[in-house]
Amino acid sequence: MNLPPDTLSLAPALLGCIVRRDTAEGTMEGVIIETEAYTHDDPASHSFRGRTKRNASMFLPPFHAYVYRSYGIHFCLNVTSGSEGTGEAVLIRALSPFAGIELMRRNRGDVPDSRLAQGPGNLCSALAIDGSLDGHDLSTHPLRLLVPLGHTPQAQQGTPRIGISKAMEKLWRFRTIASRD
After folding, report:
1. In this structure, which of 24, 37, 89, 124 has its CB flanked by the most CB atoms within 10 Å?
2. Residue 74: strand pairing partners
């Protein structure tokens, strides 16, 4: 991957990259439009208290999937980052779908297209991402992170992260202009 592996550089660099999910029913793709960074020394990070069975894949080398269940309800997709063994990742919060939209609609139910992959749980539901993909190498089938040819990330102003109760002041949430709260 031609992306920086360090977490705070990777989070904005992922904007404009593509998540591709291949299933037996077809291929789905979307452009990443929102991310959040989580470092090992961040009290909001799953790795803050060390390695556990639940967060073990967060300690893999960069560009692996860290997929976890949030509140016991929905899955969330993260891209591992930082050095192997440090426990860092970037949460993929939202995509702008462009391929396999009919399949995403079936996976998500009756929601407007603008909401198909908005929010980390909705994104995983739309792309049929579950815990079986935890630890998956994102350079291989069936879940891939693709960097478009000529991709040059734009400088982004970080904003406060949402959906957490610790370290909310960190400006480690990054969004494209087209994304919404």
Report:
1. 89
2. 70
pTM (predicted TM-score): 0.90
* Domain assignment present for 2: no
Q: How far apart are CA 107 and CA 101, in angstroms?
A: 10
Helix, strand, coil tally for the chain in percent (to 5): 20, 30, 50
The domain spanning residue 75 has which CATH number? 3.10.300.10
Distance CA 158, CA 2 (A): 22
pLDDT tens digits in sequence order for the chain, 181 residues long = 678 788 999 999 999 999 999 999 999 999 999 999 988 887 667 777 878 888 999 999 999 999 999 877 899 999 999 999 999 999 999 999 999 999 999 999 989 988 999 999 999 999 999 999 999 999 999 999 999 987 776 656 677 667 766 776 777 789 886 544 4
73 within a domain of the structure (yes/no)? yes
Domain that holds residue 151: 7-175
Query: Cβ(26)–Cβ(107) under 8 Å?
Result: no
Show the tokens assigned to 40.
Answer: 């090992």
